[in-house]
Every structure is written in C-alpha cells, then in structure tokens.
Amino acid sequence: MSLVALSAAIILWPSPPKTSVPASTGVMPTLLKEGWHYWQMEEKVKHQVQQLQSTMAPEVEPQPLDDRRRHYAIESGDSLSRIFSKQGFSQQQMHQVMAADQSLLALDVLRPGHTLTFQLDDNDQLLSMELFVHAGNRVLYQREDDGEFSYQELLNPGEWHSETLVGEIHGSFYVSAKNAGLNDAEIATVHQLFRDRVNFSRDIQAGARFQVVRSDNYVGDDATGQSRIEGIRIFNRRQQLTAFLHDNGQYFDAEGNSLQRAFMRIPLQREFRISSAFNPQRRHPVTRRVSPHNGTDFATPTGTPVLAAADGRVVRVENHPFAGRYVEIQHHGNYKTRYLHLDRSLVRNGQRVERGQRIALSGATGRVTGPHLHYELHVNNRPVNPMTANIPLAQPIPDEGRDAFFERVAFMIKQMDEETLLAQRH
Ligand SMILES: [Zn+2]
Which fold has domain 274-384? Predict the structure, then answer.
C-alpha cells in the first residue's frame, strides 16, 4: 500500500514589491519574518553584481512586433551562429554580442523555450537583442555609440511557493519519490545529501516514510521552472535522515550539522599569484563601461592541472570565442563553479566529479593576454568572490542566522507531519 499525498499546502514566502501574504495560509508572524530574511539574502547575493540592472526588470514593457522588431523561438539544435545567419546578421555582429556576453555566458545554453527578440535600425543592422530565459531572467544586449554591445540583466526574483509532499518507499526511492512529485534533479539532490549516511539501493526498508518541502519559483502566474528542496525527512528503520536548506545556500540536518562536503578555496594543487581579482564594478579602460570581472584569475602556466572545487556534475564543456574552452560544474545546494580559458578539458558533459578531481588543464584559449585560469563561484545563480565567499566547509551551522534556521525547520516539520496525517486518512 503506497501512500502518496497530492494535496499541496502552498506557502507564499513574501517578497517585495508584493509583500502581502494570503490570510488563509496561517503562517506565523515569526515565519513571515523568516520569509523576508530568506528573500533579502537572495537579493543581497543578486545585487552584488548588477544592482541597477536588476531593479529595471519591471520597468521594461514588451513592445509590439513590427518590421524593425523580430521574434525568434529557439529550436532544438540551434546555435547563435545559425540563428544569426538565418536572420541575415553578420558574423561580426555575432562576435560583438558574444563579447558582451563573455562575463555572463548566457547565450551558450540556448534551449527550446528560450526566445530572442531582435530590434533593427533603419539599415537593418542589429540594434538590440533580448534573450528570454524565463519570466524572471532576461538579458538585453544593446549596441552602444561606439558600435560595441553592452548587456543588462533583467532579473525578477519572483516568489517561491512551497508545497509538502509525503509518501512511502516501496521498490526504489527513485520511483516512490517520482510518484510523490519530485523531479530527477531533486531526487539526485536527495541521494547526494544522504550518501554518507545511507545506501539507497541497500539500506532502505520497504514502507519507509518520507516528507519533502519543495518550492517552485513564480514571477506573477508564470512558473520559471526553478525549484528547490527546502527540507526533507526520511524515516528508515530506527534512523531519521533530515536535511534543511539554510539561507546561505547550504544544507544542514535538523540538529544543524552540515551535510555538505567541503569546497576547496582554490581549484589548484598549489597557490598561484592572483593576476586579476573578482571585481563586479570593473570598468573597461577605454569605454569606461562596466565590464564586471566575475571571477578570480590565477597566473597558471598552460598545462597546470585544474581541480573540481567540490563534488558535483559537469553541466557544460564549451568553446567560446572570448571565454575560450571552459567547464561548468553544478554542485548541490545552490552552488556552481566555472573554469575558463582551458587548454584541454578532461571531463565530458554530464559526468559526475569528486572534489579535487582533475577536470582540465589550464591554458590561454579565448581572448586573453596570457595563460591563466579564470575561476568563478556562483551562489544562487549569482557570481560571488571565490576568495572571500562563505563556501561550504562542512562545519556546523554558523551563528549568524542560526535561530532563524531552527525556527524554519520547526515550521517545516509541522507542515510535514500535518501532510502525512492528511495522507494517512485518505
Ligand atoms: Zn578572468
């Protein structure tokens, strides 16, 4: 007998500018405060890069299409080069747009569902191009007076709606979790979180119960497709496995012990001179335009082994005219790392990697003045300074935000238990 609860208790984490919370949710005042705290943390991270641009998002009104404005829906297998030639734009224009995209690399992962909107000038030359990734994430590339392109991120953090899913494990955890409504990425996260504590293929007893609080991101009524696990409990034999997401992007158990394996501060076997530091406000020496440096450059000679900063999965191995050959790794929690200007990648897309594993040899590919490794760390999809960021160190929960974390855990556990009771009555 498998019990799967489909009823969703939706909590609206408050987020400006809409600060009202439906009265019917019955959320305690302290929790409201926590919702705020959570939101503010995310905003702080986001705003580290481009504060002005971020606040512009709601201002931009969609304009009607005319012969100066074209809309293009990305098809599977599309590349920017193919799209530009189909649209009749020159390769030079494409390179100018890609130069502007070097610090974002948003155009390297065009997928069906994304759209491009081109605005042309009177000579049919490209004036601007907007990439629509989802309702909360658009990027506008614009031609400047000097003919070069600049970019603006039009971000809207939206709101996170959470729901509680409960079930029992029969057969594999994968199938049971899937039946309860979790997606593949979320199930992989659960496996990774508990992999030091339980062997899912061997140690799970039939009938073990699980409870998950999962939230989805919305901008207005539009789901952005982003989701995350806020909390999970698995009751297996006499063991209780717990994991809760803290507002620093890391997971801890219900007692506040870290579930994250430590990150390496520097993805190299030894220290190298920093040839250029992280600087979101960096300006182009000639144009004075803001041209953020979203990573840390190490003066590594070509051929220096580059190591994965933490366990994760390779999600990109790409060649870019300016970023060169590069690798991107998705880590669990809300962390991502990027390694640019590589001579050679030693991994392939989709591959699982371990902390400290050799993933590449550094080089001087792309637009560089000399060989170096450009290393980026992203938290909640925003680049942060890898040398000073609060990286997971596999230590217990920090004092800052500790009380808030336990309050939120208590609230989620209450939700989980109520949902389980509901499901058992059905
Ligand atoms: Zn760099």
Answer: Glucose Permease (Domain IIA) (2.70.70)
